[in-house]
Structure formats: structure tokens, C-alpha cells
Amino acid sequence: MSNPACPSGHPRIARRTAIQAGRIGLLGLGMNHLTGLHALAGQPGSDTPPAARPQFKACIYIFLSGGLGQHDSFDMKPSAPAEIRGEFRPISTATPGTQICEHLPGLALRSNLWSLCRSLGHSTNDHSAGHHMMLTGRSDLPPGFNPSAPRPQDWPSIAAVAGSVTAARNNLPLAAVLPEQLVHYSGRIIPGQYAGVMGHRRNPWFIEASPFHATSYGAFPGYKFDHQDRGNPDRRLFEAPSLSLSHGLTHPHLSRRVSLLSNLEQQCAKLEFAAAAERFDQYRQGAISLLTDPKVRGALDVTRAEDSVQDRYGRNSFGWSLLMARRLVEAGVNLVQVNLGNDETWDTHGNAFPHLRDSLFPPTDKALSALFDDLAESGLLEHTLIVMAGEFGRTPKITLLPSHYKYPGRDHWGPVQSVFLAGGGVQGGRVVGATDDIGAYPITDPQRPENLAATIYNALNIPATMSWQDEVGRPHHVYSGEPIPGLV
């Protein structure tokens, strides 16, 4: 018997089927992505021989939300007074004359693969403004900028721009962000991550593999910590991305998507009409297969990778995230932003040295070293730019806030930070720029967020004349600066 709400010219769609199909859209994917995702399903380990892989240009943008202290990592000042130099000591790298923190031994051994820019800065010490500047590559905040929430008037993120103007290698999304969106412990969403004036349809693909936890930071489960020891238990699991809603998807754009699906059971006729327009019938079985085929889940479920691979990267959220980034780049995603830790994980106002030494540097050093080894061995490092930065650096002088922390740390510092770069044509063993004796300000080759964004765009082979369009069709230049000189 025909359903009066669903004309006989179209097959009936069960509620479960409709919801499953709708979840693909909630993930940020359209039906046109199915073919690419099935291709990804066929290479869960991405072990295709290098000679068989097509040439491409890609970028992995590792973002250290909270801000890594330059004095304690890549621009150490061992001759400065104790209140400046801190507790850590420098070690020599494989590059003569270049030293970094003693707690990054894996990176020190591989310095022939990476370079540093020690002179990038901007004008703010505010977390939200700094996020917006470093994630969009724009030093100028948009008119009416709201540090408490993203707005449609924000500048588009580097990921959103790259996802809009780079060439597709298959049907996969061109830009992705993992393993979670950046959410403040209060629950507010950090601005700068989205497409802004480009329109929400240009948002990058947000892969939610790590559930939100308000007060726990670091590479869980083995390296988690709380900045202020508030005693809130953290029982998170790092899981393959779910095709359902997770915490943090409260951005108005996503809320509108949810509202469109809220009454699916009563809207069969409307769904069938949309199905005809979108050739839904042609892809329906593919959509269901995407949701149920274990190969698809296995492609992104890095917690089920070979034991030897997980051991090299680290069985924690940092290791799994960089492993997932490598697989996505190999599979066809042009830019992958990896948030190493949720919002403000690297915000070391207090207890800085034990947190860096015990909880942050070990998993970062191990996972990044494994990523270098894999990309270099496969020949893909030449085609993949790796960038690591935060929203700002940290103050030269160590401070103590005894009401919150037992041990000292450093506060926010916008004027300078050290940016780590490798691959994608960047020559290893180079250092661009220098800071003064206390690591407070650049004294040579000052750089801005615009220069970092241009470095990424250039590595992706985006022409200097390329533009992107906002939601009403007005063109905007992709480049707002020149690539950082001296790296290539």
C-alpha cells in the first residue's frame, strides 16, 4: 500500500534510513563525498607504495591552544637571569649552532628535517583575539569582533580558505580539523575556527574524535592534567569520528542543521522531494554503507592501527591525532588542522615546568618525531608542510599566582613566539629571525600571522592572484602578506 505522504513514484524511506542519511550532512559531508570516503575505506593504513601515490601539496597545521613559551622550547635564553631562563636547559640538535629544550630529544635528533621562525608576533595578549589572528592569518580583527563567540562577520580560517580554493584530489573534503573543536572550559566556542564571512557552508570538516571536558588538558589518557588541580575526573575516550552530534556542535550554523532534522519522522514527503532533487536514490545505499561498513570506520579509527604504529606515535590523543592527520593527507585532504589539546591546554600560567616536562612535551615529541619519520620515509614530507604554532608566546619573566598554582609559570605574550616548520619545500636546519636577550621582542626579520598564512598558501600551490568570495559574492585576496623568507 502506498504511503499518502510519499508518492508511489519514489520508494519509501524508513525513519532510521533518513536519520542515517541526515547524519552525513551533520558531519559536514555531502553525498558527493561518498565516493572519496569509500576510497578512503579501501586504504585504512594508507600503505600504498610511494611510487604509486599521486603527487600533491598538503599542510598539517598543528595548533597549540594556550600558547607555548618560546623560552621553554625553541628560543631558550640560557645566559639570562634565572627568572627569565626558567628551569629547563638547552640541548644541541643535529644542526650545529641550534639548540632547543632538553625535553624535546626526538625533535633535536631530526633537526635536519625542520626549521624555526623565532620572530613571529602580533598585537594582542588575549586568548580569543590571538586564536582568531593565528587561525585566520589576519592581524586585523574584523569589525565588531566578539571574543566570546564566533560571528558570521569573522575572517575565514586558514583551513576554510584552503578548503575553498585548493584543487580536489578526490571527493573528500579539502580541509579538516581534528580531534575536536576548540571550546573554552566555560562552554563558549572560540572564534577563528570557521569560515566566517565565507558562509557556514565553507566551514572545514570538523572531526569530533575527542569529547569535550571542561577542566582536563593534555594527551589523555596517559598525559592528562588539570591546570589548577580541581579534581574533576576525566574518563574520555579517543574514538573514531561518530556520524552523530557531539558536544561543542552548538555553533548557530550547526544548530540550524539540527533543526532541519528534528522532525524527520513527520517530514517524509519533504525528504522525498529533496531526495529527487539531490539524486538521493542513487546514493542512498552508499550512504547507509558509509555508516555501517567497518572499513570506513577503520580508516579513521587510529586506535585500531597496528600495535607497532600506535607505539611509535603514542597511545594518546596527541599520537592518535597526528596519525589520523597523516592518513587524511594521504587519503586526499589538503589541509588538516590538528589541535594538540583542547582550548588553552598550553596556557601555562602556573605549574608550567612540571606540566611541560611531564605532560606536554613527551607526547608531542614522540608523536611529531613519528610523523616526521613516516612522511620522510614515504617521500611525502617533500609535499607536506608541517606548521606548529599557538595563539601567542609567553612572558619573558616567570611569575607565580599562589592563589591558583603551587609552582610558577609565564603569562600571555603576543609580541613574539617561535613557529616550527618542516616539509613542503622548507629546508631543514634553518632559523629565521632572532629575539633580544630576554626573548621579549624580535630584533631581526619580524613576521606576522599574514606571513605564516602566506607560507601555508604558497606550500599548497595557491597562486598569488587567487581570491575567495564571501557569502554575497564579493572577492577577497587569499594572500595578505608574503611567505616567511629564508625557509625554502
From TrEMBL:
Residue stretches in coiled coil: none
In terms of superkingdom, the source organism counts as Bacteria
Pfam families named among the record's database cross-references? DUF1501
* Annotated protein name in UniProt: Sulfatase
In its UniProt entry, the species of origin is given as Planctomyces bekefii
